[in-house]
């Protein structure tokens, strides 16, 4: 079983590569089978009901539970087996985030149990077993991720790989299931609005709307069924987050890591007040807009159009601000010339790929809107706002991705340490005049230190110092003896480092602002503001059914993008 | 522009990473816009016609043409700029393959021009301009790939990146367009069969079937319109191949390569007779089955069922053979203990990802069939053959992927060279008796030499030899002087190396057999044998429309899988 662990570092061993392909193919098949069951349920396939799908999911969760228990026991008894940790994986704020979502998911599960008890006459038992299993699964999985998200598994690889990939795809299937339920709910609401607005000509069939029997306790029923749909967005985020964390764990299996110290960079509110104020303003206004939108939309034609106009104008304003902030941040990066860290790092690679990949979801929707506006025969006034909105959505994600990916690839700032080193070295040389020009040379050229060059400078200073002869012996005494020289050099430092500090502060503020903006923009689609439905233009051009399919496929990625970019921006804020 | 090239090798420079993200996001947006245009055409969106889509494609091809001309001129005048080559990219047989497909694509283009001339009264001019542009595009692109597929571009990176990614996604869009046209054609044929069989209850509308006006020269018209659909599969393969080659070129931009000699391993027919005979038998029988299937299907209910039964039985037999061959090959690999080469290699990484990714397409279809068989209420006898067929499709691809990915990751065989070295060294020791046990130790343990261990053995032999004193001086003389010892050691070598040779011959035969089988299995779906349509069971369970959508989305990947795995197996055959 541990055949592969003794192989040389350069060439991987056969069993390990084999286990990788074996397990990934197993996972894909698991997922595809589940996907088809979900699809069959969605299209009301003959002979396939929701309980079939739920049974499949329950089985998968049960297997994962067993595997996690086995892993936890094994790692308790044999602590020596897992020594390496990936410092980049499973950051603390990620764990906190997943715990928050998990808690809300548990509330959702209890609502579902309550709903099942109320309608137990006409629901299949699987609908009761599912939330219970899911709650157990959630609790154990969060515990597992807290303890083991950073693990780099080196032993008994095959069984580990299968277990982890099983967990990844189980969570992805649960995500798919959540997304589908949510989409059906949104579509039903949209159809109800269409009925209210008098579009009876579209063949409207409400899908899985309500059970066929009466509720036993009427007041609780409506709370449960309403509450469930407000909690779903968090459940969806929980599963996709768990899935990505587990995927990083899977990619890390059998990896060789170089141990380089990672700076712990806790989040600080200090110095990002401006960004926070702007961001919170956006957040508040977005929540207000969403509430007004959800109340107004579908009431009457005029009210719907007003709600849409308000939504578009607000979004255009926010997106334009975000674009500006992103461009400013990129310009600041262009002024500096810091090299990028391209070392192997599965967590970061996944982050970058997910950003671009999931942005594609909303780009698809935006291109659909643009095409619809260009090709439509009639243009009600409010539809014109859709054009700048769609264009800005594309540009904003384009710029933001550039900013985030460059930020997470920049090498950690070592300027402060290096300045200290330089100061000690230069002060010890004991000659102010000869040193001042070299200072200027360093700090005029670039605001923060180029890591590639600094060691050279330091070493050359050391060489110079050593050639001075006795200078090396009276280091401590010199430091105390020449206060004039010291204050002069410190002044020079402070003026230079204050420029760097200013840039850093601007970047931190931008990251904080963008973080809050992304959180804000997550809210409207997650809680049912879907101008892509209500706008009506795309539905006329592409047809009702095709456009609904496109929206339902692309929207989950678009929603996930916002949460994921918010998480990445939080990291950027901490790192800057 | 060349800012990034001076940076240290370990950390990448900002402009390069930036250019990568900038260009990939540009490419994705280009693709998404095209995809939506294609989608709009497919769903008959209001105000969007085929000529809009064709205009978009013509524009993209034209931009690519200009870029390729610029690149060719630039690389002619400034030869010094491109010095590095990726020896793994753009293999000769890949270039030959793409040329073959390109020639057939040119014939297709000429057919399309002929078709346009015949129906010029009622077709838009874009339908005439498109094939002409496409022909020019094809010729220049093939020339470009022949000359520059191995390039590792180090200078003026931003413009290169944009040009290459533009080319990648232009080809992908042309592939999508080809796939859609082909799917529409297949669907029309299927609907015609359904009409013949009397299933009039399904709302059957033939899609883009024939132009609205009469043909000017009737005989040519039918040749053109028939011929076009037989040539489409090659056109589709051409674009996806070109796309993958260009993608590897894109991934290689700015890469640092270690120059290690690659063995040129030309394809030889010698020693793979058994595999070839079996493979050619499968190929012939498959062609026969396809011809009979296409003639019989849709004639009457009985004939259709017979054709389906024949198809399934043949496919089950072939797939079972392929599974067996794959398992044997994997067992042989397990007997050896050779380490894997995990060095950076974009071409190989893409190969492996494409194999697993595109296999998912046919796995999805297979899971659909399995689900349909389990859930269907009525089971005509012939549908039961579908179950082992679908299961075997999944297992066969699972095993074959394992085999191919392990094969392309194995380190090139150096056994022959090492044996020669060993022979010289050991012969020079001048003592037969003391050496024989060490030989046995080496060659009993493992059939081919473990690369990790050999240098050790060789060096220890050298040490031993040097401690012998004068032995090192009379190396040449010893070789000539002790014929008895030499023949003994040679005998020992030959018996050992013949085991290794036998294993190699079996592996080569298996690779050749699987190569021909994959080529064979490419034919039925590419030329319109689609039991997934004709079987009828899935359509009943999932519904006509949903199942057609699934098949049309998954089938192109399934078809591409066969051609791609055939190409990979050809490489495996050459390397083994």
UniProtKB/TrEMBL annotation, chains A, B:
Cellular compartment(s): Cell membrane
Membrane topology reported for the UniProt record: Multi-pass membrane protein
Family from the record: Belongs to the otopetrin family.
A GO CC term assigned to this protein in UniProt: plasma membrane
Keyword Iron among record annotations: no
PANTHER family the record matches: PROTON CHANNEL OTOP, PROTON CHANNEL OTOP1
Gene Ontology terms describing biological process: inner ear morphogenesis
Protein name, UniProt field: Otopetrin 1
Highest taxon, organism lineage: Eukaryota
Alphabetized UniProt keyword annotations: Cell membrane, Hydrogen ion transport, Ion channel, Ion transport, Membrane, Transmembrane, Transmembrane helix, Transport
A GO molecular function held by the record: proton channel activity
Transmembrane segments: 26-47, 53-72, 93-117, 129-146, 229-250, 271-295, 311-333, 354-379, 506-528, 540-561
Organismal lineage: Eukaryota, Metazoa, Chordata, Craniata, Vertebrata
Pfam families associated with the record: Otopetrin
């Amino acid at each position: 079983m541990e055949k592969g662990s003794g192989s040389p570092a350069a060439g991987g061993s056969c069993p390990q590569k084999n286990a990788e392909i074996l397990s990934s193919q197993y996972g894909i098949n698991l997922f595809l089978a589940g996907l088809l069951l979900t699809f069959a349920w969605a299209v009301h396939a003959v002979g396939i009901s929701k309980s079939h799908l739920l049974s499949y999911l329950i089985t998968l969760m049960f297997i994962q539970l067993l595997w996690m228990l086995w892993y936890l026991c094994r790692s308790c008894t044999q602590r020596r087996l897992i020594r390496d940790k990936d410092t980049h994986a499973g950051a603390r704020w990620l764990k906190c985030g997943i715990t928050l979502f998990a808690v809300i998911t548990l509330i959702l599960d209890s609502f579902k149990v309550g709903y099942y008890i109320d309608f137990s006459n006409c629901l299949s038992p699987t609908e009761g077993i599912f939330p219970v299993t899911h709650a157990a699964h959630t609790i154990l999985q969060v515990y597992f991720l807290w303890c083991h998200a950073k693990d780099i598994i080196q032993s008994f690889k095959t069984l580990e790989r299968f277990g982890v990939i099983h967990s990844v795809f189980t969570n992805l299937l649960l995500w798919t299931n959540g997304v589908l339920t949510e989409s059906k709910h949104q579509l039903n609401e949209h159809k109800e609005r269409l009925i209210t607005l008098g579009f009876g000509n579209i063949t409207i069939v409400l899908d899985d709307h309500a059970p066929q029997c009466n509720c036993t306790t009427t007041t609780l029923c409506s709370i449960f069924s309403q509450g469930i749909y407000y909690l779903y967005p968090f459940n969806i985020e929980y599963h996709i987050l768990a899935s990505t964390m587990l995927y990083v764990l899977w990619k890390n299996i059998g990896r060789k890591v170089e141990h380089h110290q990672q700076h712990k960079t806790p989040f600080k509110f200090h110095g990002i007040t401006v960004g926070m104020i702007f961001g919170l303003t956006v957040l508040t206004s977005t929540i207000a807009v969403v509430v007004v939108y959800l109340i107004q939309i579908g009431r009457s034609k005029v009210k719907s159009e007003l709600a849409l106009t308000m939504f578009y104008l607000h979004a255009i304003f926010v997106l334009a601000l975000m674009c500006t902030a992103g461009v400013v941040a990129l310009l600041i990066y262009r002024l500096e010339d810091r090299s990028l860290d391209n070392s192997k790092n599965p967590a970061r690679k996944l982050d970058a790929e997910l950003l671009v990949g999931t942005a594609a979801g909303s780009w698809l929707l935006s291109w659909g809107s643009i095409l619809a506006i260009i090709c439509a025969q009639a243009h009600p006034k409010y539809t014109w706002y859709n054009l700048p909105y769609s264009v800005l959505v594309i540009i904003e994600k384009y710029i933001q991705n550039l900013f985030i990916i460059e930020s997470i690839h920049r090498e950690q700032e070592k300027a402060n340490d290096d300045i200290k080193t330089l100061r000690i070295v230069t002060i010890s040389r004991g000659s102010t005049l000869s040193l001042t020009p070299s200072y200027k040379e360093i700090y005029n050229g670039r605001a923060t230190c180029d890591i590639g060059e600094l060691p050279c400078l330091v070493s050359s200073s050391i060489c110079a110092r050593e050639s001075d002869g006795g200078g090396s012996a009276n280091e401590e005494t010199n430091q105390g003896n020449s206060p004039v020289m010291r204050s002069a050099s410190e002044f020079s430092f402070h003026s230079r480092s204050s420029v760097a500090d200013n840039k850093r502060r601007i970047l931190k503020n931008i990251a904080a602002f963008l973080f809050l903006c992304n959180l804000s923009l997550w809210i409207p689609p997650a809680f049912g503001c879907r101008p892509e439905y209500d706008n009506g233009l795309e539905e006329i051009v592409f047809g009702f059914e095709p456009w609904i399919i496109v929206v339902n496929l692309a929207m989950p990625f678009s929603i996930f993008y916002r949460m994921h970019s918010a998480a990445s921006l939080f990291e950027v804020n901490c790192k800057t």
